[in-house]
Write a structure and sequence with these properties.
Layout lengths: L2 H13 L3 H14 L4 H13 L3 H17 L3 H17 L3 H14 L7 H16 L3 H17 L3 H17 L3 H16 L5 H17 L3 H16 L8 H15 L2 H15 L8 H14 L3 H13 L7 H8 L3 H13 L4 H18 L2 H18 L2 H17 L3 H17 L3 H17 L3 H18 L2 H10 L13 H11 L4 H8 L3 H15 L4 H10 L4
Length: about 550
């Protein structure tokens, strides 16, 4: 077969988005005789989209040097930009900035051109991620102007995407999402080339997840899945797509499919090029394993997430809570909550913090956390956060003894979770609704709610929740095991949170002598001799 025939076949495969076949044929032709710049650039892109990053960089580097040798400076800059853009998307910012600097040097003395807009736009992304939103916005606006002037649809898409992300980061979510939607219209209609289309998909979906816009995240993730499926050889964006799919499948209750997606994402993102989203893939896998009661496997996944650069909280802390290690979970979450400052970041930690504070008997801290979460939900104003905040608020109200208010709040939360098609969260709220109804003297409705929750947990395979529910339903609400009175159970919860007798007396408005008597009675009834053993008993019997 002649080199000319092989090249024709390579170009046909490239046009059909058969990236691996195109790469192999271009590489075969290149081994026979060096490719011309057009075909060399196609070889580089086919290698990149096949996940062959080393081969891709070598080919683009050759194309860059060949363009410099021919004094085709604009082509040389375009290749430098492609190399730098690919590196930056993978999180390798230092070598990316090196290629952008080289592009700027090559461009010295050239007049107005689209390549200048590209360098401006990529540097604006670095400014945006570094927190310099004002200069980034100005640069993105200039990138849009240059893209229009030179009719560069890729540059227009990347610049508008940057504008939209800046607005979202500043809290102008509605305006920012409108711009991102506009970018995605161009992507889904085929106006944007494959490399930049993939970057746009992943960036926009990540932006939707950041502001908890689940409707958009679902729609664009479905579109990304179709786009990836239409290109079986595509590698770079498939792992990111699987991470997003896993998050949504978990929420929708398709846990078996979510685990499969998480495992595939870990495989795609771990080699031969390690992507910066690998930690998120391991974290999602850990979350699913924790919810299914696979605690040893979950711990290993959280460890790998941490090794890959993803903070394992709040998932690892919730694992410790499920293991009964309340003190560890408490200290970890208190530390984690003191670190993030952005409301969206805090809103990811607060639900676990509230749950842990309630488990430890520290209702006051749980109330503080629930109030802050409610304020964040009111500020961001999306259905998902409103559901999270209402669930936490209802749980705290129930712990405070205000079952009537708790029931109203929990009904709102349940309706929101049903609207979001989130069966696990719905089941957890129904457990709380059942407890509230029991506290209000309605055992029949309580039993109905708890049975409905049990069926959902069984369908999902949520073993730890089923075990906790089994303990809960062995006794009516308000009736403690071991013959403890309601007051003794309350004292046990406060004791378990680490409070001294004096602190418990002050909180309950009783004398220290009375609390000492209660503690003595508790120890006698449940057959323990230390506060640590009493704490363990309380947790094992669902009193804490």
């Amino acid at each position: 077969m002649t080199t000319i025939v092989v090249l024709e076949q390579a170009r046909a495969s490239f046009a059909q988005c058969s990236w691996r076949d195109a790469f192999q044929r271009f590489a075969t032709a290149d081994a026979a005789a060096p490719l011309d710049p057009d075909d060399l650039e196609k070889l580089a892109l086919a290698a990149y989209l096949s996940g062959l990053d080393a081969e891709s960089t070598r080919a683009w580097t050759r194309a860059h040097h060949e363009a410099v040798r021919r004094n085709d400076r604009l082509r040389a800059v375009r290749n430098a930009v492609l190399i730098g853009g690919g590196l930056l998307f993978r999180g390798e910012s230092a070598p990316a900035m090196g290629w952008f600097a080289r592009g700027e040097r090559v461009l010295e003395g050239c007049g107005d051109c689209a390549e200048r807009g590209w360098l401006l736009t990529w540097n604006a992304y670095v400014q945006m991620w570094g927190g310099d939103l004002e200069n980034a916005q100005a640069a993105f606006a200039e990138g849009v102007t240059v893209g229009r002037r030179f009719d560069d649809t890729d540059l227009l898409a990347m610049s508008r995407q940057g504008q939209g992300m800046c607005l979202v980061i500043q809290g102008l979510v509605r305006d920012g999402m409108a711009l991102l939607d506009e970018v995605m219209v161009g992507v889904t209609s085929g106006e944007v080339s494959p490399m930049y289309a993939g970057i746009a998909y992943c960036t926009v979906i990540a932006g939707c997840s950041e502001v908890f816009d689940l409707r958009r995240a679902r729609e664009w993730t479905a579109a990304l899945s179709r786009w990836c499926d239409s290109q079986p050889d595509l590698v770079p964006f498939r792992g990111n797509c699987l991470v997003h799919r896993c998050e949504l499948l978990q929420l929708e209750g398709a846990w078996t499919d979510a685990v499969a997606a998480a495992r595939q994402a870990c495989e795609h993102l771990s080699g031969p090029v390690r992507w910066d989203t690998l930690g998120s893939a391991y974290y999602q896998l850990g979350e699913l394993q924790r919810l299914r009661g696979e605690f040893a496997e979950a711990e290993e996944s959280y460890r790998k997430a941490n090794e890959s650069g993803r903070e394992p909280e709040p998932g690892l802390a919730l694992l410790r809570l499920a293991q009964g290690r309340i003190d560890v979970a408490t200290s970890v979450l208190q530390r984690a909550l003191n670190e993030p400052q952005e409301p969206s970041a805090r809103s990811r930690i607060l639900p676990a913090y509230i749950e842990t504070m309630l488990a430890s008997g520290d209702v006051l801290s749980a109330r503080t956390g629930a109030d802050e979460l409610g304020q964040i939900a009111e500020s961001i104003d999306v259905l998902y956060l409103r559901a999270v905040a209402a669930s936490a608020q209802g749980a705290v109200q129930l712990a405070e003894g205000d079952a009537r208010s708790a029931l109203r709040t929990l009904r709102v939360a349940a309706a929101a979770w049903r609207e979001l098609t989130a069966p696990y969260e719905t089941a957890r709220v129904r457990v709380l609704i059942g407890q509230a109804c029991g506290a209000l003297g309605d055992p029949e409705t309580s039993a109905l709610e708890l049975d409905a929750a049990r069926r959902l947990f069984e369908q999902l395979g949520a073993k730890p929740d089923l075990e906790r529910l089994e303990v809960l339903t062995r006794r009516p609400y308000g009736e403690a095991p071991g013959g403890l009175t309601a007051r003794e159970a309350e004292v046990l919860r406060l004791l378990a949170s680490g409070k001294t007798n004096r602190a418990i007396a002050r909180e309950l408005g009783l004398s220290e002598k009375t609390i000492a008597r209660h503690v003595s009675n508790i120890f006698t009834k449940i057959g323990v001799s230390s506060r640590a053993a009493a704490t363990a008993y309380g947790y094992e019997n669902n009193l804490i």
